């Protein structure tokens, strides 16, 4: 069947082709006629014909293709397809199926709907694209400081080659410099080092340098340690200690000298020379000859004082020792004596040992210490002679002494601190005596901690917030606009009274008399974050020595008796206790009695409401938070609000803060240069936005921030990809390509 | 004998030059500097007072136009140049530091509706009521040569606004449709319309440069993307928006100035609810412009005031007004973030400082440090009532104040009424709407 149809269609085509040839003449005539008619109508209508295909007949007016007017059917196409050999069977089959199918296509959506879908898709696309800015925007919002214009060239010093790049030698001086540089083979490009410099850099490897550095560090540490130790020992005033030390040193030196003779004779010789020199000096001078001032004074005393005599003899002995000629280098005694003379400052000639070098008049001060120090070691020294161990022990004893003394001093300090603090409290009490009671109490309260109040505050504040939240937050803008013009500071001062004609937002600003008349409980509720509470950073007691800190017992007794005498008539203490109990009672909640006689029972004169009724209608109020002075028997702390301070207090917790402690801590940290170093102030006060003067701030440029559009279509990928990553990826790509290339080359080779 | 002598390193107390300030050694021991908080509080209070005393924002007034100013634009590359158009079709180019008019051009017949500078600054475009777009050279012609536009395009309808692309040579106009033009062609390369008869403003996004937004007369704000064939989306609000401005630092935020006295900041990804409602004006807001840092914007209103809003705050931080300033029609923030320009009905362009109390000119480092410290102090103690009271005080003319009060009363009454309605109806039937949700009617996809 199919084959027959094909044949038929072929025949049809053949016929139509032949007819076309015949009928084309007629058609032309017909068209001409039509044109003539249209031209007669006056209006010129030239029908433009499209040139689509080359044709056999070419009109002189236009190009005409065959069958322009006809519609092309699928069957026409199919016929040609069947003929051509190039078309695949598959497409032929599909076309045949298409021809045979009878179903109609669905109607396309109407314009509105398609447009809506298009818009939706476009919107999604743009939003995803735009939201890649999210990270950058957030980052900028959080940034502590932004410098505009963005993407400025850094003002940091640039590398030489960058500067040099766009610069030419002009003046003769510059030319000369350049010649010099080139003569020394100074490189202009990347490594800006001369060969010499490079060599010096290479000379020491990193590890070596590290080791050397560690050594140096160690040496420095040791040196400083020894220096410190030497200083300490030098400061010790005990003569005995130094004597012992000198002896030890001498011994050491002797040992060293002995060794030196054996190992390093030249060094020993030099030492000898030194000794000789010192001998000469000794012989020249009158030192140690009992001719000094001190010696003379001692000579007077020598008659009666054994020790003086001894001292003089010692000095003479010293002279002898020093002037003795050294015959044998191994002679121990002489060297050591000489050595001592060099190292030890001679205090023998001093007229009197001055104890305190700073203040020569401070004689009596440390004398009582001195015997203490000396008494123990003196015995030790005498018993031990010149043995090393003993000496070390002695030094240890000194150390212990020193520590003990330090500890004593530390104990003293807190005692001093406590005293003034208590005195301050007393003093303030006395000062405020003439003021009325409340003020006094408040002053006392300043010194006692107010932290307990803060605890209670948290609950109070929420009630405050809810109350104020309604009327202020709604209306409150950033500005407070009114008709008053501010021209100078005086205007600012009076601003308060006339602002806007309406009451100031903070009820604390104008405490009404009515509010004060009411019970204390609501007043307490209106308590605010007080500046003073904020200030409760521990009061630093300034350490000023109060004159007589230690009063004799007799004096104290006297004072007590005087005070007793003065207040003989009135009992102050009991008055105070009464006062306090009164205050406490006023703060205590009263029982609200709502009983009405006669309701539900008989009423009349002499009749009391029943127990049931009393139980039912007498309402016990909740107790207030415990008083601050509950555990302080000698103090009354007023919990009334101070209206003069209230106008400076923050009434409710500001927005970003979570709790009062947070807010208070931010207020408490000073930012000024009085309290902080310059760099800290600079960092704390740096402005959020810095703009450069006279610079145009351009809007952000997308290319600077979001670099790769192709890698993350639709902004799904990370907004900013690290350069290294990207490079790595590219690297892998390249390497894989390379590998592929190599493989193919190998293959080619093998084929060859 | 060793003699102990006080000796100091001269580096510690000798100045390097006589111009240096004397070095003062300081001891930061806290015991020596007690009462930190009260002292800083006093300083903060003084700083706030001085800030208010020195708040003199008005810098200059540029007069010369013979009709109300209808539009202003900044020069793209020169801070000192400003171009303004008036309602009589006159165009003036101003030099700000000299405060003088450099050129006067009779550009259009009828209003000059919009001006925009080309991104390179060499030329600028104007549209007017005479249905033309004209391109002008930024440089004045030689002496005796007539001012002629470089290029004139005759359109089919009146153009009401124009804006230029940030980097390419295309620009957008709005009128009956939003058209995108190529500078080289005399017909638009694309035109968008979405069932609206006219637009009042069109603006390119300065960051995402292919995005556009326009305000339409059917109370909507429409978004476009020049790469797409159709507009993206539109929000219909309760009243018409007059102009809008994109945030130059945050790509997806824009703020529109509305007829209902408010400004609305939108995030284009969530158009159904504005991010912030900025309310303080007492009459229709006519123009808005962002500071180049994107932190604040300035708005001009029919109520004869200019207000400066932080971009994320609901209320203004500053209000500028003068006795002689009438309805402010256009406003621009200078490109260096220092000044604000306003053009108003009474033919004057006024130059204001963006920070009222800021000292102009170069500051020495010490001055700068002191200013920074004062600013920080005010910020630290901003919640304390005395500081707040002084810092927030602004003078307002009586009629505006009266209107403000009236508005507050109205709002309060409305709120009360709504509350009552809610109270007397079935629970849940009258939903509680926030201020943000109230003003958006619909989002059309």
Report what the structure shows.
The complex is a heterodimer of chains A (752) and B (445). With 752 residues, chain A is mainly alpha-helical. Helix content of chain A is 59%, strand content 2%. Chain A has helices spanning 2-40, 74-83, 89-100, 111-130, 134-142, 160-165, 172-183, 195-203, 206-235, 239-263, 265-284, 293-302, 306-323, 332-343, 369-384, 388-431, 437-447, 451-475, 489-498, 513-517, 520-525, 531-534, 553-566, 572-587, 611-617, 643-646, 660-668, 678-684, 702-705, 723-751; strands at residues 146-148, 480-482, 592-593, 618-619, 689-691. Chain A has a two-stranded parallel sheet. In chain A, helix 2 packs antiparallel against helix 3 (89-100), helix 11 packs across helix 14 and helix 12 packs across helix 13 (306-323). The longest helix of chain A has 44 residues, at 388-431. In chain A, 9% of the residues are buried. Mean pLDDT of chain A is 69; it is low at 1-21, 329-357, 362-387, 412-475, 498-549 and 709-752. Chain B has 445 residues and is α+β, with helices and mostly antiparallel strands. In chain B, 16% of the residues lie in helices and 36% in strands. Chain B has 5 helices and 30 strands. In chain B, the strands form 7 sheets. A 5-stranded antiparallel sheet of chain B has the order 14-15-16-17-30. Chain B has a 4-stranded antiparallel sheet with strand order 1-28-27-26, with no helix packed on it. Chain B has a 4-stranded antiparallel sheet with strand order 2-3-4-5, with no helix packed on it. In chain B, a hairpin with a 6-residue loop joins strand 2 and strand 3 (81-86). In chain B, helix 1 (36-53) packs across helix 2. The longest helix of chain B is centred in the last third of the chain and has 26 residues, at 398-423. Chain B is globular and about 105 Å long. The relative contact order of chain B is 0.11. The mean pLDDT of chain B is 94. At the A-B interface, helix 4, strand 2, helix 19, helix 27 and helix 28 of A face helix 1, helix 2, helix 3, strand 29 and helix 4 of B.
